[in-house]
Design goal:
heterodimer; A: 245 residues; mainly alpha; 14 helices; elongated; B: 241 residues; alpha/beta; 6-stranded mixed β-sheet; 10 strands; globular
Amino acid sequence: MSRTLFFAKRNTLEIIRDPISLFFGVLFPVLLLGLLSLINSAIPAESNMTLYQIDTLAPGIAAFGLCFLSLFASMLISKDRGSSFMLRLRTSPLRSWEYIAGYCLPMIPMAMVQVLFCTLAAIAMGLKSTIHILSVILGLVPTACLYIALGLLLGCVLSEKAVGGICGALMTNLAGWLSGTWFSIEMIGGVFEKICKILPFYPSSQAAQALLQGDWMLALPNIGLVTLWAIGASTAAILVFIHHH
Amino acid sequence: MNAIETKGLTKKYGTKTALDGLNLTVSQGELFALLGVNGAGKTTTIKLLSCLMSPTDGTALIFGHDIQTAPNKAKALLSTSPQETAVAPNLNVRENLELMAGIYGASCKDAKEKATEIIEQFHMEEIEYTKAKKLSGGWQRRLSIAMALISQPRLLFLDEPTLGLDVLARRELWTMIRALKAKTTIILTTHYLEEAEALSDRIGILSGGKLTALGTPQELIHLAKAKNFEDAFITLAGGAL
């Protein structure tokens, strides 16, 4: 096992042994899914409101839930930065790219498990089990990379307290409100709609919803846009991380 | 080859000189204590020698490797036990030890074997599977030092290793440190003068960023014309009796 994998294993254990991570990573999206499904069951069928139907809701929440990866990554990095443990690691032969890989590697499987949990819960709530669920899991990898990169970036520059506020409150609210999962952005329209379509949150949930329907033509442009954001955020995160080390 | 060789090692923060032209040689296997009052330059010296920062001027070699041009070669030979307990809190004792062994290049199998060895050596069998954050201060300190030693470093920096420990735990650590002498070069910083006197081969006293005295405890007492080591330290560190 390489140095990076030893470090990645440590980061995995630190995250999965933190009950807050388990709550936000696994339970919270499932609770949200259950709550909104309950609301949906109270909406009369004749209203033709499809937003909270499970096949629209589940991929949207799966995409939204990934924003908690930013919180996990940034909390871990900012906590490490302020500790003597990091001082010890910095006198070891670990290089900058090994730190970055060590922090990011555990997050990808965690993201996949998180999406899987969300879709399994959705199946239990009535979502049809199809092969397209696998496409959703894979199609959300760029979204996961984007949030991991944002976590790395914010963890490098913010204190542990500030990270809780920025990633825990601001980012999750942005990711939620601008994703089109809670309400239709077309309903508001105008500048708001344009901003939502430029930022990565709405395209992420659109891609996930399209993939669940097997509509690759609609999914690909959205995945492309999210990938561009992910590349930009990763580049910024790597440069800032190396500068700080 | 010497463990440490510095020539005119200097570190400035803006207009403030934290370390001023340090010339120092530490032999292999030596236990060298670095003493000084707060702000004397001890931490800056340790940070420079452990490749955590670059000097403003001068050079430092760790077993012949320049800290500026070959920091990774130097880092592979050294290890630190910082003043605050430096452990991964959610990992248990064994996991912390295996992590450090792995980071210094051990394979998975070797890391497990090394962890088993050091757990026995430090008598940590009863806490092997306890998370680091649940250990008492004394056990955490012991784990922190064990983590520094698992890579079998040729040079070990011990920063205030017995700070906050009770008398029994401190004496136990002294025994461990003595057992390391000769095999490992140790740089010790401490505020406990009796600790430095009891353990060190040589002592360097820093004052205002300059090395003001260097020698064995007896030589320093003689140099300061003092009755004991504490009086000698106060004289040589620039204080008044």
